[in-house]
Amino acid sequence: MESKRVVVGVAGGIAAYKACTVVRQLAEAGHSVRVVPTEAALKFVGAATFEALSGQPVHTGVFTNVDEVPHVRIGQEADLVVVAPATADLLARAVSGRADDLLTATLLTARCPVMFAPAMHTEMWFHPATVDNVATLRRRGAVVLEPASGRLTGADSGAGRLPEAEEITTLAGLLLERGDALPHDLSGVKVLVTAGGTREPIDPVRFIGNRSSGKQGYAMARVAAQRGAEVTLIAGNTVGLVDPAGVDVVHIGSASQLKDAVSKHAPEAHVLVMAAAVADFRPTHVATSKIKKSHDPGRTADAPAIELTRTDDVLANTVRARADGLLPNMRAIVGFAAETGDANGDVLFHARAKLQRKACDLLVVNAVGEGRAFEVDSNDGWLLTADGNEAALEHGSKTLMASRIVDAIAAFLGNKNE
């Protein structure tokens, strides 16, 4: 991504220290970052820290460098404004259009996407005043992230925790890639997402697995949640990934466990996104103790033969269950296909055949290979629909691809409501 001008606003809350990581990550991504804190924020993190991380001066008031008119210019020139943390007080001042410091003045003059990352105690987040303020900001086109749940200040715990810096900068990158705000258009929609690879045990030490990292599925869950959906994420092998804020995460290991988790949560879901790389086969017999190898290198006959059994097709089973009337709430089922071409046909040939077999509503197709699809941060592919439409998904971050897929899901749901 080309370098962009990003303003990071910092309000006065204990989570202000996390803004340092946000600034660093945005700067390391090649963007020009200007930090605009409130006076209260500087009681938590000094101006020198933000200046060192951003390489730009830090001011809070409108009477510094007046000849440059910073209270107007900073917002006018920005490609993105990120406020992290956004306290209850800052949200209230933004809604009322206050311009009593450099940050609120910048918010009034910005004509680029604006993203607020709230951080406050649970009682403040759920107070009717804050609920109304968030709704007003979203109605005006601002992106207000769902906060994470977890440890707050003191012994308190609950909703209102600032999302991790990686999540904030990932969504900031998405807004820069999209060039527009992220719509909050899935309120009331329950989305079930599967992600990551399954592991099928051979013995207590070994397993059969695949190269899926879970990044695409996590991106799907993250984007859907930030667009207002109530998201449950069933996560397989996703080592090192940060659980998305505002998402209920269920961790599983094997294909059988994934099947059980989908069966449990699917009846309440309106949308199923099967982004997980589910094993097609599992060992028929699992050894109760580690299978030992011979210490004699010449005894190759001692290598064990592993008998395999086909696993249940979770996607196809869900489609059938809906057709049988067992999932009356399910309005959209999205499959994923990682394909390679062969002597019989190219990637799209196999994808079209898979869509026909699975009978899902949408199928996302990725061509896999070295450095493609698995274990990387970017992706491309095609989006196929049951009515025969095919659209290319241009190369970009997996978060951008997720947003394009969610665009299609939202459009599909809208068409079904007409």
UniProtKB/TrEMBL annotation:
UniProt EC number: 4.1.1.36, 6.3.2.5
Sequence segments annotated as region (Phosphopantothenate--cysteine ligase): 191-418
UniProt keyword terms in alphabetical order: Decarboxylase, Flavoprotein, FMN, Ligase, Lyase, Magnesium, Metal-binding, Multifunctional enzyme
Amino acids binding CTP: D280, K290, F336, K354, K358
InterPro entries listed in its UniProt record: CoaB-like_sf (IPR035929), CoaBC (IPR005252), DNA/pantothenate-metab_flavo_C (IPR007085), Flavin_trans-like (IPR036551), Flavoprotein (IPR003382)
Cofactor: FMN; Mg(2+)
Region (Phosphopantothenoylcysteine decarboxylase): 1-190
Substrates-to-products reaction catalysed: N-[(R)-4-phosphopantothenoyl]-L-cysteine + H(+) = (R)-4'-phosphopantetheine + CO2; (R)-4'-phosphopantothenate + L-cysteine + CTP = N-[(R)-4-phosphopantothenoyl]-L-cysteine + CMP + diphosphate + H(+)
Family: In the C-terminal section; belongs to the PPC synthetase family.
Name of the protein described by the UniProt record: Coenzyme A biosynthesis bifunctional protein CoaBC
